[in-house]
Specification:
There is one protein chain. The chain is mostly helical. The chain has 1 helix and no strands.
């Protein structure tokens, strides 16, 4: 009978200690979640900053390419006009 009582006490003490440990771990979860959320928000801000920076750079490159394209069109027009004048002079 004594052995049974000791076994029950030991078992109940172990269960009580496990419950206390589990509660302690459960109390840590909200802090961990807050930390993780903070890291995620920081990462999102960094990604958004990088994205905005890329958009600006793409806009600059597009503008530069558009300018070069207009310049090439102008050069081609000048070349066509010069060639037409040369052909006219050769035919005369």
């Amino acid at each position: 009978m004594k052995d049974l009582k000791n076994a029950i006490r030991t078992s109940s003490i172990k269960s009580k200690n496990e419950i206390i440990q589990n509660q302690a771990q459960l109390h840590k979860i909200p802090n961990t979640l807050v930390e993780q959320n903070s890291k995620i928000e920081s990462y999102q801000r960094n990604v958004q900053y990088d994205l905005d920076k890329l958009k600006t750079e793409i806009g600059s490159v597009k503008y530069a390419l558009d300018s070069k394209f207009v310049s090439l069109e102008s050069d081609m027009t000048s070349i066509k006009e010069s060639m037409a004048l040369i052909l006219q002079k050769l035919q005369q």
